[in-house]
Amino acid sequence: MRLWGTVASAALLSACSGGIVPPEAGPARAPASAPAPARAPSRPGSLPETPVHLPARQPTPATPLSAMPALAAPVGAATAAAAGVVAGPALNTLPITQEGAERGLTAYRLSCSSLQRRTDSTGLTQGADWAESCRAAANWPARDARAFFVRYFETVQVGDGKAFATGYYEPEIHGCRERRPGCEVPIYGIPSDLIDVDLGLFSDDLKGKKIRGRVEGKNFVPYYDRTAIEEGRLQSRAPVIAYANDPVEIFFLQVQGSGRLRLPDGGLMRIGYAGQNGRDYTGIGKLMRDRGLLGPGQASMQGIMGYLREHPEEGRAIMRENKSFVFFKELTGAGPLGAMGLPVTGWTSAAVDPKFVPLGAPAFLSMDRTDATGLWVAQDTGGAIKGANRFDTFWGAGDDARAIAGGMSARGTAWLLLPKGVLARLTAAAPTTP
Question: Are strands 240-244 and 162-170 parallel, antiparallel or unpaired?
Fold first, then answer.
């Protein structure tokens, strides 16, 4: 599960995700100048140095396809089934590119074992529904990837189908394993005195609710907030797994929940979300916007970072208004993992609300910008990715990923791709409306 929330617009930095953010936090992720063509995701180990100031990439506008007529979803609908579903357009009429279909097939194949095993919280599918397409996916040739989706899937619209997409990425920043001049911002592991409490053990009314804190004398109290931690309260309480050279970069790495450190010798150290202090997340983007600190063109992650660096004392105080603090661990293996415990793929994986999109399922987004339009596979979740048709798109690592995710804020229409026959079963089971 990501703590790396969405990076998209400053307004969203008040809310979210996506890649990778803890459920308790959930951060967030506006466009800038000239269009740039989409590029393939960067490969591990071949990333260029990330510049300190990188402008948000200007999106190429597009006209989204219209949603299908649908009844208004019941107020407070908590799942896709409760929100109501209708048939979407025929799959062969959707503009799925060959490249997008190939990436989608690869990601779907990876998700198959989990799709068939896990309970679908949306109320739409059963594990057996995915079996036939998963068997076929195992050996389906990439050159016919588009035909695979047309053969085995139908589109379904949840509620009114109106979609909103943000973006997240895997940051790469400068760091070192040992403290040295110019590399002195600690990256902490889990503190030894941080305690998780499952409130459901004390009351059935509190099932599914948890809190985090520490013991002080005979009392259980909230854990140290960001200010206390930055002022040294974790000494002897938490291991320092690495150091970084820029507190602003570390702040945003915590928003993302996962990232890579470029070490002095050129090597990479991958770190990921290990825990969080239990304090509520405050999105500083909305806070800064409400105070009039962000001018035209600054409503992006890059604009926020620029302001924080140009006003270091004020910037430190602003960041400390977000009391949430993330702890990390070193990761091994290739690529960051999503909420399914599987690697997420740039330009393909998306974080969703698993009560409205089955984890592992494909979806087609038709959005008002071209880079967000296409086939995505739901392989992650995020603390602020909530509700129907809400997607946080993952863009990989490197400069391009950072620029796209930092400016991603797209609206349009979403359709889920479910195995053929599922909609007929849901329709037959639905109560008759007078």
Answer: unpaired
Q: Which of 226, 207, 223 is closest to 215 using CA atoms?
A: 223
Contact criterion met (CB below 8 Å) for 316 and 357:
no
For 364, the token pair is: 């087609």
* pLDDT of amino acid 116: 95
Taking each helix axis from N to C terminus, what angle separates 301-310 and 399-406, rounded to the nearest 10 degrees? 100
CA separation for the pair 55, 402 (Å, rounded): 9
Q: Which two tokens stand for residue 29?
A: 């992720």
Instruction: Give the global pTM.
Output: 0.75
Q: Which of 304, 332, 326, 300 is nearest to 404 (CA)?
A: 300
E strands present in 326-408 = 326-331, 349-351, 362-367, 374-380, 390-397
The pLDDT of residue 255: 85
- Measured between alpha carbons, how far is 113 from 118 in angstroms, rounded to an integer? 9
Q: Which residues pair with 258 in a beta bridge?
A: 272
Q: How high is the pLDDT of residue 22?
A: 32
Dmax of the chain from CA atoms?
73
How high is the pLDDT of residue 431? 65
- The Cα 50–Cα 214 span in angstroms is 38
Say if residues 35 and 59 touch (Cβ distance below 8 Å). Answer: yes
The residues near 355 (Cβ < 8 Å, ≥ 6 apart) are 78, 79, 80, 121, 122
The pLDDT value given to residue 56: 60
pLDDT at 34: 29
| Distant-in-sequence, close-in-space partners of 389: CB < 8 Å, separation ≥ 6 | 158, 159, 160, 161, 162, 163, 164, 356, 414
The separation between the first and the last C-alpha atoms of the chain, rounded to the nearest angstrom, is 41
Q: Please answer whether residues 13 and 167 qualify as being in contact, where contact means their C-beta atoms are separated by less than 8 angstroms.
A: no
Whats the size of the chain, residue-wise?
Answer: 434
Positions of the chain with pLDDT lower than 50, given as ranges:
1, 3-54, 434
What pLDDT is attached to residue 44?
Answer: 32
Sheet holding 219-222, edge to edge: 195-198, 210-216, 219-222
Nearest-angstrom CA–CA distance, 36 and 69: 35
